[in-house]
């Protein structure tokens, strides 16, 4: 059994439980132990990154006390976290997420409606 770890940072997690459930069903089908660790914001990231070898970070834009781009910048300051892809999303179509991330490496932008499909691309690439 393979293990996959996702850190999902979103202050409005009610909707993400549906996506997480769908992903868990798919993971079970392909003999993958999927662990999704939800966080309400990007606080205590140092401790969280010591807990699991994350395969993906899923990051919302609109959060308190900082928006997701600030947390992404903090994560990218840590050299040992450069290799973890970050999926950055917003439900607000008026926010230019690409402009916010600038030239940060390994950060991928999507809208909230496409988050589940994009996660599947990272976690289940050969399926």
UniProtKB/TrEMBL annotation:
Gene3D superfamilies: 3.40.50.2300. This is Response regulator receiver domain-containing protein. Residues 7-96 form the Response regulatory domain. One of its GO terms (biological process) is phosphorelay signal transduction system. It comes from the Bacteria. SUPFAM superfamilies: CheY-like. The lineage of its organism: Bacteria, Pseudomonadati, Bacteroidota, Cytophagia, Cytophagales.
């Amino acid at each position: 059994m393979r293990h996959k770890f996702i850190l999902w940072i979103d202050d409005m997690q009610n909707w993400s439980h549906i996506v997480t459930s769908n992903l868990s069903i798919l993971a079970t089908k392909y003999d993958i132990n999927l662990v999704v660790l939800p966080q309400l914001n990007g606080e205590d990231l140092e401790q969280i990154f010591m807990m699991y070898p994350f395969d993906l970070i899923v990051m919302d834009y609109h959060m308190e006390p900082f928006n997701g781009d600030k947390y992404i910048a903090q994560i990218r300051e840590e050299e040992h976290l450069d290799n973890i892809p970050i999926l950055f999303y917003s439900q607000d179509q008026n926010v230019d997420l690409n402009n916010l991330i600038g030239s940060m490496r390994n950060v991928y932008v999507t809208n909230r409606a496409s988050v589940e499909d994009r996660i599947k691309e990272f976690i289940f690439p050969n399926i």
